[in-house]
Design brief:
about 160 residues, alpha+beta, 5-stranded antiparallel β-sheet, globular
């Protein structure tokens, strides 16, 4: 998690409409990827943004990484961010941006087909198809049973000394 406070953007996020458009006007350059993580951060201009790290999982570039970025500056930006979130299965209705950032770990493992469009030294990525939602996590590490529950102490043979 990050220390960047986005609570002042909560109302703008809630009021933003999901952006429209299917990305069909973009040139070829499709990659099958899995979401490796989302991070809330700041641009060089100190604008808050979300960076999606996408691992390439098939084709000649397998093992490579693409980045997808959403600037969080205007309602239009928020609309594109909402569109991306809803594309990967997040229901944004009624949620604040702060609440959305808590869902970032739940998106890891989501598989997508994305299009990469080069623009000089930069590029953009566009989500084209949801291939598989993130695997359902039934329990986290905090739910795991202890290694040696009190009612089952280790045998002397299990002791390291």
């Amino acid at each position: 998690m990050t220390d960047i406070d986005v609570s002042d953007l909560d109302d703008m996020f809630k009021e933003s409409d999901v952006a429209q458009g299917d990305g069909s006007e973009n040139p070829d350059g499709d990659y099958e990827v899995a979401i490796c993580g989302l991070q809330l951060g700041e641009s060089y201009n100190r604008n808050r943004m979300v960076t999606w790290r996408l691992g390439i999982v098939s084709g000649p570039c397998t093992g490579g990484t693409l980045l997808h970025k959403n600037t969080l500056l205007t309602q239009k930006n928020m609309g594109f961010f909402k569109k991306d979130l809803e594309f990967v299965g997040v229901d944004t209705k009624g949620l604040t941006l702060t609440e959305i950032t808590r869902k970032f770990p739940d998106l890891v493992g989501t598989r997508l087909l994305v299009r990469k469009e080069a623009d000089g030294q930069y590029y953009k990525t566009y989500f084209n198809e949801l291939l598989a939602p993130a695997p359902i996590r039934e329990s986290g590490p905090e739910d795991a049973p202890p290694d040696n529950p009190p009612d089952n102490p280790p045998d002397e043979d299990d002791m390291p000394f």
